[in-house]
Amino acid sequence: MIYPIEVNDLYYKYEGNLREILNGVNLKVVEGEAVAIVGLSGCGKSTLLYNICGIIPHIYKGEARGQVKIWGKNILDMKLPEIATKVGIVFQDPDTQLFSPTVENEIAFGPENLCVAREEIGLRIERVLKIVNMEKYRLENPNSLSGGQKQLIAIASVLAMETEILLFDEILSQIDHEGKIKIREVIKELKGEGKTIVLIEHDLDNLQIADRVLQLKDGKLEEFKDGETVGLNRA
Ligand SMILES: Nc1ncnc2c1ncn2[C@@H]1O[C@H](COP(=O)(O)OP(=O)(O)OP(=O)(O)O)[C@@H](O)[C@H]1O
Ligand SMILES: [Mg+2]
Fold it and tell me: Which residue has the least CA distance to atom 31 on ligand 1?
């Protein structure tokens, strides 16, 4: 069977670190599934997502062993632009994602790089801003927005890429209560459209969106049993 995401026996150590952060991770995600990953701060959740979207090993070097496959293709045999057509990632800190002078430029950036037609890009900007309820901020500078609003724009800019696989790294952390409800709905809709989703979560209330919850512990993924102490909050 070919999976949108398949991770086999993955080990990873950052350059200069002594310890392996990922220590034999195995993960298979089927099409249309939403998998949540929880775990203590610093246990390697973001590092795992970097391995799935190709930032590791293509940008961060370090020492990696094992295999990550996207739709059956080894990520080592794919260049970053090719991976970007298949996997979208919303980072934990929206400031690392946003760099354009206006919200609309920010959202256009990814599709422009994929050579999407100008007219189509315009339609996508409208559509994704509507999804995150941020239409009126289209001409604002992302730097002038609040943390939660930045997260919404980071989500919108990744949705505009229309990738089949979406990685969400604690994307609800700074969003207000109403915004959270809205984005949880959006994630459910994306799942309904057949998107494959991996989300890192810190907030137990958000785990209900997931079909499966896994815990990253000692560098390995295991089944999560509610009630364990994994540094989770309840809003
Ligand atoms: N670029 C880097 N170089 C060296 N070490 C790093 C780098 N990025 C992260 N680390 C280390 O790797 C470990 C795992 O970090 P990671 O960010 O993946 O954890 P996390 O589970 O996402 O944490 P959090 O819940 O705080 O977001 C941490 O000890 C961190 O200090
Ligand atoms: Mg993290």
Answer: 42
